[in-house]
Amino acid sequence: MKKLFLTSICILSLAACGSLDTKSQSGLKGDWIITKVSYPGSEYIKVTSFDMADSKCLEGSSWKFIPNNNKGTLSIAKTGCPSFSSPIVWTVTKEGNFTLKITEGEKAKRVTHGYFLKMRNQSESSFQLIDNVEVGGKNVEVVYQFQKI
Fold first, then answer.
1. In degrees rounded to 5, what are phi and psi of residue 15?
2. pLDDT of residue 5
3. What is the DSSP string of 119-145?
4. What region holds the Lipocalin-like domain (predicted)?
5. d(CA 54, CA 137)
6. 18 phi and psi, to 5 degrees?
7. Which of 61, 94, 113, 137 is most buried, with most CB under 10 Å away?
8. What is the pTM of this model?
9. Domain ranges of the chain
């Protein structure tokens, strides 16, 4: 019975790991910046990104992704915007979903709030994260364009 239980645990663990896209994750290794944030009506309407700042404040923000432990950091230091820096925990699924937790010094398991985005157009030097938000009663895509530095 004990062997059956341990075997079941191992199979479940492998299945959980199998749902991650390790190729996409390893392609994110390194330092990145957000070069542009765009969405329909962005010249007239403000969107708060990740419950922390105006989306345009993320332009120029620095991101570091470490794929072997799915951790990293993000930093905002744009003039006229709140200064912010935090560790992050992230994953990419085979379906192209990107999950993000901004941990702000807490252990990831204690952070109950996260963000689910879509990852698109990944290359060696760039990729996009897409967030669906409601703006003026309509669902719009906010596109975060990342460039490797």
1. -65, -40
2. 35
3. EES--SSEEEEEEEEEETTEEEEEEEE
4. 28-107
5. 18
6. -65, -20
7. 61
8. 0.81
9. 21-148
